[in-house]
Design brief:
The complex is a heterodimer. In chain A, 83% of the residues lie in helices and 0% in strands. Chain A has one domain: Arp2/3 complex 21 kDa subunit ARPC3 (Orthogonal Bundle), CATH 1.10.1760. Chain A is an all-alpha fold. Chain A is built from six helices and no strands. Chain B is α+β, with helices and mostly antiparallel strands. Chain B folds into two domains: 33 residues; 71 residues, mini-chromosome maintenance (MCM) complex, domain 2. Chain B has three helices and seven strands. In chain B, the strands form two sheets. Chain B has a four-stranded antiparallel β-sheet, with no helix packed on it. Classes of the chains: A mainly alpha, B alpha+beta. Chains A and B meet through helix 5 and helix 6 of A and helix 2 of B.
């Protein structure tokens, strides 16, 4: 791996961790409601630098993030890990078929993140299908809402990045 | 960026997916409470007196007289009885309705808080 790439990944991972830390400060009505802002960075990385880069920064974010919040190797860590890997894999598959824009990818990512988390909960912690069934509508609703929000954020960011790179090329 | 521009940035499949997700979410919100299995409380009455009122999703085994009532995984059964008929034991696991053991005058009913029909029925 080239030095340049390493720096880029480190920077993106730092952004993702910052997003993760920032969203924990936002009070939410339900304690486990998260916006998943870090997925904005993941999605941008995925579209610009591909699957390996996106997976790397997701793993770094989950690892460092869990250490910062003191949940390393605890239940939330396992849930984030499975959810994160699911989400990156699903977004990459959806990205490869080239019919979805950032909004669709973000929705898919949010949905598969939740799916992965629920599977992790079911497989590792509690085999109670009923409580998962009760949670399903809430989780679907939150996933769709945050998916749209993050998708729009990605559209804005990509547009901004495009403008910035245009400016750089014009001045050179 | 204006809204129109923003909409231009989404593909047809994005929009289809969004509509689909909204639809699925709406359907889940409406349907899941409807098809949730009943549950709630297990009432155990002996001689018409209420002895126990227990949540059905908490695993427990209770001996009552010659009966052993077992609650597990949202269901209830009589695991063992010293009566000759063994009808209550043969009835097996139930998650709704009742198990009645006449010789011991024990009535075990499952009353679902979620299963009580709230809509219009034939009499209203």
């Amino acid at each position: 791996m080239q030095q340049r790439e390493k720096y880029r990944l480190a920077l993106l991972a730092a952004c993702a961790i910052a997003m993760y830390g920032f969203e924990r400060l936002i009070p939410t009505p339900i304690p486990w409601l998260r916006f998943g802002f870090a997925n904005i960075i993941t999605l941008i990385t995925l579209t610009l630098y591909g699957f390996n880069a996106a997976l790397t920064i997701t793993l770094i974010r989950i690892l460092i993030g869990s250490m910062l919040t003191g949940t390393f190797l605890g239940p939330p860590f396992v849930m984030s890990l499975v959810g994160g890997v699911f989400s990156v894999a699903a977004m990459w598959a959806a990205f490869r078929i080239r019919v979805f824009g950032p909004l669709g990818l973000s929705l898919i990512g949010a949905f598969f993140h939740n799916l992965g988390q629920l599977l992790a909960v079911y497989a590792v912690f509690i085999q109670n299908l009923r409580s998962i069934l009760i949670l399903a509508p809430v989780i679907l609703f939150i996933g769709t809402l945050t998916g749209v929000l993050n998708g729009l954020a990605v559209i804005f960011t990509m547009e901004h990045l495009k403008k910035m790179s245009d400016n750089v090329q014009n001045t050179q | 960026m204006r809204i129109a521009e923003l909409i231009n940035r989404t593909t047809l499949f994005d929009r289809i997916l969004l509509v689909f997700m909204v639809f699925v979410t709406g359907a889940a919100i409406v349907l899941v409470p409807l098809c949730l299995p009943r549950g709630g409380q297990v009432r155990i009455e002996v001689d018409n007196k209420l002895l126990y009122k227990l949540p059905i999703n908490e695993d427990k085994t209770i001996p009552i007289g010659g009966l052993v009532v077992e609650i597990r995984a949202g269901k209830v059964r009589v695991a063992d009885s010293d009566c000759p008929g063994q009808i209550c034991v043969k009835q097996g696991w139930i998650d709704s309705g009742a198990i009645i053991c006449l010789p011991k005058r024990v009535v075990i009913t499952v009353e679902g808080t979620a299963a009580v029909p709230k809509g219009i029925d034939a009499t209203t």
